[in-house]
Amino acid sequence: MNLSPVLLLLSCVAPQDIPERPEDLKYAPLKFDVPDAEKMRAPLRNGAAAYVIEDRSLPKVEITVQVRAGSFWEDAGKEGLAGLCGTLMRLGGTKTRRPADLDEELDFLAAELNVSVGDTSGSASLSVLSKDLDKGLEILFDVLRNPAFDPEKLDLVKAQTMERLKSRNDSTASIEARETNLLLYGDYPLNKLSTGASIESITREDLVRFHARFFRPWNFIIAAAGDFDRAVLIEKLDRALEAYEIPKAVPERPRVPPVTYAPEPGIYCFHKDGKNINQGRVSAAHLGVELHHPDVFPLRVLGYILGGGGFSSRLVQRVRTEMGLAYEVHADLRPGILYVGSMRMAFQSKNETCALALKTCLEEMERIRREGVSEEELAAAKQYFLDAFPGLFFPGPARTAGTFAFAELHDYPKGYFQSYRERIAAVTREDVRRVAEERLHPDQLVIVVVGNISEIKQGDGRTRLADLGRPIVDVPLPDPVTLARPVKDRKGGFCPRCRDLMFTADIGTCVACGSDTSSGGMKLCAGCARAKGVCQACGE
Amino acid sequence: MRSLCLLVFLAACAGAPAQESRENGFGVHLPVEEFFLDNGMKVLVVERHQVPRVYCALYWKVGSVNERPGITGLSHFFEHMMFKGTKKLGTTDWKRDAEFNEQIEAIMAEVRALKLRGLEALRRGKPMSEAAAQSSSTIAKADEPRWADLMKQFEALKEEQKKITIGEHISKLFAANGGTHTNASTYNDWTRYFVELPANKVELFFWLESETFMGPVWREFYPEREVVKEERRMRTDSTPTGLIQQQFNAMFWQAHPYGWPVIGWMSDIDHYTVAEAQRYYDTYYQPQNCTAVFVGDVDPIKIRELARRYFGRLQRRETQPDPIVTQEPAQAAEQRMEAEADARPSISIRWHAPAGVHADAPALDLLAMILDGRTGRLWRTLVDEKGIALQASAGYWALKHGGMLYVSANPRDPKQFAELEAAVEAVVRDVQEKGVTERELQKVKNQSLANLVRELDTNMGVGDQLGLSDVVGDWRDVFEYVKKVEKVTAADVTRVAHAICTPTGRNILIIRRRGQP
């Protein structure tokens, strides 16, 4: 880097030029145009599309094929199939490549190829040096089109999966995540949890069928960025899609059903054994909104101020900074993408102060509903979203292409990114106050507590869990592999929807005969449920 | 002051001679500008204009390795305190704030005296306060009323001080100006503070960070101690294997300061004092001990000017850091630990290895890569051929003053630990006795280069490569390393495998699932 002496002279500024306060700093305006998705988009053969960005800064190429597929569409009894399908596409070889040869070929090229399938979407991604692009692309599409699902590899992956199932209750974090979803979403497909039996039952034919149903060009949105000529790459992708059979009519992407489950508010306690567990993990959540909801932008701002904005948020300020009760505390009011999301607050605190920290979080939720937010808080939150915008969605070519591909696959509202900053800028204090009042429901919170429950219930001597005035339900942990929970009275029948409600609780009353049921969460006593042939928990 | 523009050619793969691959290969153009301030602070700038964002970071040559028993974890706690503000930041009235801090110090000095008496009571087996134990403090039962009274006074002062405190002021200012990833992290050898800012607001970083490191005010010191205790409970105490890993690490390092946890022992956290923190600041937080790194949409001339204007104000001091002289003695006997946990059964074996800047590090790195991965020796043998493991991996953990080579595997049948251990040993012995193939070597060389290219994908990735190399050696090592890797021969790999993987040098950790045979 050559510096001209003239420039050096000009740039010498005396130390007194440091403003007294950081607020006094003057900044040039930031120019950032939202990348034009339409210009990047290339329609491809057979209903696929790609977002392609040429970027010559590094000698590599990143290509991700995103696909609408996931555990949401698994058949009952085959839970775990979607995940296994992704893993086996990568590990099980192809019709012309044995698994070991495929791995060796990729490793020698120092290429990375990953396939994974989650709950509503999956992806196959390739990272390859640009000199090996053609080879990499050929392998990527071989894996996408011709997976062999080698039976030996299926056995291995099943064994690995069984080992993971056994670990389900190992950490308080995994318990909290699972139980919160079960309590919030009930029988919604989000909770298709695999068991030892469901994993065992999955056959190679199941994988073949699942793959054939979802891994089709009409279900692909591709993101590509890197060291290539854009027109040439588009041509290559198009040629790769040529080999697929042309469908008579392009089918619709699989649909995600609406959430209809009505969660039961309360404090649900899950005892985790272990003398080392000196910290409890707590979350408080209720169902929220979905991306197309008109309130998502005021909710973003509200969520940031309540507990989404890290150190700028009220929860961190009170629970962590002022009270020293937690290292990690946050709130998340972001919308769900294809289905209704959850709005939650969560923290970890030593057993004795979980109740106090929870009380404080609940107070903050009530307070923000009652008082709204200040002008300063609003301004700071909005400025964060406005200034951080390029970094949040478009920090580099690969992420930019990925952002647009994800948005298309997930049916984002039209012009979502184009209007993002305007819609943030338009949020008023009144908007925030209104959504706080209308969308936050402290009375509906499902609170999950995991840890040493007896210590947590006792609290610090001043605040006990029972002081929060909410029903407390002790729920035994399920067997990690079968997910069956020990119950006091196993005689009553449970429908699959209520399988996960099989916990012991307070005494309740049977709606049919008026007798005490074994559990307050149940509609019917075991006798009436058996006599009517209905589910004891929900009466259906 | 000098500047440097580096054009790095990463040699291409597939066994082509170096010269030829240079021509046919691919180049990474990474212009790094380096300059020094008069006070000794080093500044590195890399221009990347794709997005109007800039990664701004300070890398300091201080970490848990610089601590001693009694103040373990102080480097990390100090990092937390660097977000608490100064006279100008974090308070609306610094004079009253200073008065509060002084009053709080007086009370906490007495609390500290009680804690020391508590330690003595504990030593003598006297009854202890349960209330204090809740916050992992040692107070004798007999002193509990006085302790409770002092804590009440402290709480009252804290409430009063709160009225003039602007909590988390620094983080809030970064966020309200579009800062993302605002954070800091502490490791054994270094501490880094970083944020990504919009390109037009880089000056905010200079203002806030130069102000912070010119003179911290020890505000909210005691509540933050409790926050760090919670962090320890979260990361170590309450995780399935946190305490076991901590103990294994302490066993592995006999003499070296790497043996204590970066977050510190709980009893040490409870005893941190303002005086120790100040001493730490005076010793380690001097400008010549820091490398500032800026990567992104920047003008290097502007950065140079800002650095001079703002960071030029930091003062060098008389106190010099103590050099790290302790050498890890050669292990005289194999060490073994068997544990039970709510965790997947696993076996790990560690050997001591040289530091990351050592001449043998590239060969070691390649050795680890030859063992690691789905096509690596361990997986191929243990998972694919013998079918006795569910997975297997290996790695070389390079630190400033030493390192380790480790392998680990999860047994397919938890009753067959002995068989698995023998098989792991056999894989290592095979490398020692029969060596590695040219193709294997070329494969991991290709991967080593590709990994570096991928690391350079983000501004932060570039910043970390340069900054982290610089605080343990020199940022140029990033590029020198590429050349060194290219020169490693199969014989080098065998040689380091012999030197490092010795029977007496083994450290074995076996974790069985609790309640399982």
What does this structure look like?
The complex is a heterodimer of chains A (540) and B (517). Chain A is α+β, with helices and mostly antiparallel strands. Chain A folds into three domains: 37-170 and 192-242, Metalloenzyme, LuxS/M16 peptidase-like (Cytochrome Bc1 Complex, Chain A, domain 1, 2-Layer Sandwich); 266-409 and 421-474, 2-Layer Sandwich (Cytochrome Bc1 Complex, Chain A, domain 1); 487-540, no CATH class. Chain A is 39% helix and 15% strand. Chain A is globular and about 70 Å long. Chain B is α+β, with helices and mostly antiparallel strands. Chain B is built from 19 helices and 13 strands. Chain B has helices spanning 18-24, 74-81, 94-123, 130-134, 144-162, 169-175, 202-214, 221-237, 242-252, 266-269, 274-284, 300-311, 361-371, 377-385, 417-434, 438-455, 459-472, 477-487, 490-500; strands spanning 7-10, 26-29, 32-36, 42-47, 53-60, 180-186, 191-198, 290-296, 335-341, 346-353, 389-398, 403-411, 507-513. In chain B, β11 and β12 form a beta hairpin. Classes of the chains: A alpha+beta (540), B alpha+beta (517). Chains A and B meet through α4, α6, α12, β10 and α14 of A and β2, α6, α7, α8 and α12 of B.
